[in-house]
Amino acid sequence: MARTKQPIQGTISSADELQLMLTPVMQAAFLARFNVLVNGRPGYGKTEIPLAMARHTFGNDSVLLFPCSPSVRESDILGFANPMYMIDPQAEQKGFPYWITKNTPVDERFGAVLLDEISRFGDLGSDAVVHIAHDASQYHRPVLVATSNWQNISPRTEALRDRFPFTIIYEPTLVDVQAVMMKPAIETWEFDLPSLEDVNKVRGWTDEYMEAHKNPDFMNMYKCAPIIVRLLTDLSKMCEGTPYEINNRRVRMYEKVIYTMGCYYADDKDFEIIPAPAYDALSYMYPVTSLSESLGWHKMVLAMVDIAATEIAEFQANAYAQWKQIIEQTKVRGQSPDQATLENLGRALGAAWAANEKELKARHPNDPRVNDALRQMQAIYRRMLRGDTKI
Length: 391
Prior knowledge:
By secondary structure, this protein is α/β, with parallel strands linked by helices. The chain is built from 16 helices and 7 strands. Among the domains are: 35-164, Rossmann fold, CATH 3.40.50.300; 327-385, no CATH class. The protein has helices at 17-32, 48-58, 74-78, 84-87, 123-132, 155-162, 177-182, 196-211, 218-221, 224-239, 248-266, 276-282, 291-302, 307-330, 339-363, 368-385; strands spanning 36-40, 63-67, 80-81, 99-100, 112-116, 143-148, 166-170.
């Protein structure tokens, strides 16, 4: 039976927003075998919710929680050579495995591994993850889901960030205390995610689809192929003159995500309509390193599918840029701002907020996503007003 996306009604509570943000991303990640990075402040469920989601799809015994720390060795991640081969000449005849990977992130018994606080890795751990997380190895290891409170942004870590096609920078809104208290334990939540049977079925169709690329008549073999080409061509053109670029590898990644999501929602190995959740997943599919980068990419992707969603995303990007500019203009090098400066800053930020809020509500008075966007931006606004610009 084909699946349909149900619109979100009403305001999203703070107990649900990360789950709703993650759902299309985790759907696509599990189906297409792509890694996910969730970056955000502690205490809002960025470890517990993805872990529960992975267990929902792959089962409790097929998901590994792997704590990251500077003391982790390469062998803890890559595995190590079996010492039996050094002491027993008959080791191979006896069936001993040559490479031991049990309970490591490359243990093929697992469907997914959650790398908890990946930014806490030392150089050895980070370099090992760069080695194992390349998309060329995706058929021989679990899906990797990493969490972090911050990103280490340097030339050394650029390759590591690139190994996670999906990047979510989660900026939580104000906590709805009652909603949190009334919500049951995360491990009991119901998730809108593919079953293991769904995952295996779609992955089988995807292998056939990718193999069909060798056929010169490929574009006529699948109804969805020219549709995907048009979408990615439009997206590539939109990137011209922006900081974003679609390289060869990203073309293949985006194609695979669109195809797998199309199959999943149509319950068929071919389709003519790209489902809305595929665009939602793509809107988090860029190695962003800041909230402003994330908002900009989100806006570009949504521009291809939903005018209202595009305008809401544009409001978020513009409001954030405007607030950053106001903050920069009030900075005094080497000095703390005085009370008068802080008061002027508050008035300027407040005026910008009011103007953006009025404009957005006037354009889309009945769209529940407006309230969600305003709540998200209000949380950012409050942090900036307190002097926190590291977002």
